[in-house]
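Hi support team,

I'm filing this because I wasn't sure whether my run with zinc ion finished correctly. The job status page said complete, but I'd like someone to confirm that the output block is well-formed before I use it downstream. Pasting the exact inputs I used:
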Amino acid sequence: MLSAQQHTRALLDYIDASPSPWHAVQTTVNTLLQANFSELHEGDAWALAPNGRYYVIRDDSSIIAFTVGNDLTENGFRLIGAHTDSPGLRVKPKPNSKVGDFNRVGVEVYGGPILATFTDRDLSLAGRVYVQKDAQLSSHLVHFNKPFLRLPNLAIHMNSKVNTDGLKLNKQTELPLLLSVANDQLSSQPNMVELLAKELDVNTADIAAWELQSCDTQAGAIYGVNDEFYANSQLDNLASCHASLSALVSRPSLNAQQFNVCAFFDHEEIGSNSHKGADGCFLSDVLERVAYSLKVSSEDYKRALSNSFLISADMAHAYHPNFPDAYEPEHKVLVNQGPVIKVNANIRYASNSASQARFIQLCTQADVPYQQYSHRTDIGCGSTIGPMTSAKLGINTVDVGCPMWAMHSIRESAGVLDHQYITRVFTQFFA
Ligand SMILES: [Zn+2]
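And here is everything the job wrote out:
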């Protein structure tokens, strides 16, 4: 078993290789291939081999990986769900936003980022680009591996109340990212589309469409006096993807002869309502087709669902001692004190007493501490893919995750021990 620091280092490498949801799926596939998983295409007929290991990708940024076990009807599926997307800035279809002497890149806000954290960072772009060339369409992952975009703060001399009123940015006029000075002595600096064409070695006219997001170029880091914390972008929710993926490809899971499933969805940060989001049909389509391929009747498929269990894995809000009033005083969850079970009476989280008890039992079996979280009653609570996935499939579900600071900042941080703890619980679940 890797040390907690080594396991966290593997997580940071996973995130650094995954600057967009499309890259996250590719990075996930690389791990699955090493564990002898093979790809199934939704457009093909499926013939599943006994004890087979497979994955299915929908539209490049959602992925479901599973193992074929024994007696689906009786055993059901053991599922862990997470999401591949993170909030940030997405490039508009016509991105060249020239104002005065500057080439800028026009962006739209995706989900709910803490916008102030995107200022003064060494930003780049990553995502998926479609090229149309010689009557052929092709899709490409793009990751500019150097900083070339920036959102500089206004100096405090022109924004003297920034420390008392906070940083306020107009999303239309004050968010475009600075790319270059136009018409300087270097003359005719390339605009963003020209940079993209150069990166892909095609003509600008060949570029048909894209989904690109700003990404941080700073690599992940382990920090703290005793190397007990870590920081990177996208901990929410690539940390949960990495923990469950590590569990899925671990020896106990691969030897377990169970139907273990990892489902990583795009679009959680914007409500999950898409053809590849958790509120869509991707997961139910895949589970149904697993059953059909194994000649399980529709009644037995429903029996299998009722014997299934879903862990919805997403990050939790660690207690921040500088802001004690932000937290429910009896439900402070601390970094490096174990996975968090999230509970909300209005089912913003899917947990109930039965599913909580099952997760607690897993923690006990894995010898891992756990914590319980309830949001302050007087402020709105976030949600996860848990409630909608549970409702769609009728599978009992628990919402859990590791405690972290600064959710939706471009530089989030969390505890090294927690990443190992939750991986051990997930491994116990799949074993
Ligand atoms: Zn999340």
